[in-house]
C-alpha cells in the first residue's frame, strides 16, 4: 500500500508541473494583450499612452522573459498576487470562503 501511494505521489508531481506549464503557455500564446484586456474591463474603454502601457507591463512582470514569468507565477510568492496580508481576495476585499459559500 505504501509503495502504491508513493508511486501515485511521484507521478502526480510531473503531472501537475506539466499542466501548469501548458496553461501558462496557452495564456501567453492566445491573441490579445493582457494589459489591453485589463484596461477595457470597466464600463468604457480607456486609452493608455505607450508609457502607461510599459509601466503596467513592468508592474505585472510582463516585460520579463517567459521562464522568469513562469517562475514568479508558480513560486512561493504567487499567493500574494491574489491575496492580501489578511487573506482577503484583492478585488472584492472579502474572504474567498464568504463569496463562494452557497446561500
In words, what does this structure look like?
This protein has 103 residues and is mainly alpha-helical. The protein has one domain. Helices cover 57% and strands 0% of the residues. It has helices at 2-29, 34-39, 50-60, 66-74, 96-100. The N and C termini lie far apart (41 Å). The mean pLDDT is 76.
- Beta-strand percent range: under 5%
User: Sheet bearing the most strands, described?
Assistant: none
Topology pattern, helix = H, strand = E: HHHHH
Cα Rg: 18 Å
Shape: elongated
* Contiguous helical run count: 5
Low-confidence parts: none
Helix content: 55-70%
Q: Could you give the distance between the termini?
A: 41 Å
Kindly give the count of domains: 1
The average pLDDT is 76
Number of strands: 0
Structural class: mainly alpha
Topology:
Layout: H1 2-29, H2 34-39, H3 50-60, H4 66-74, H5 96-100
Describe, in short, the structure shown.
With 103 residues, the protein is mainly α. The protein has five helices and no strands. The model has no long low-confidence stretch (mean pLDDT 76).
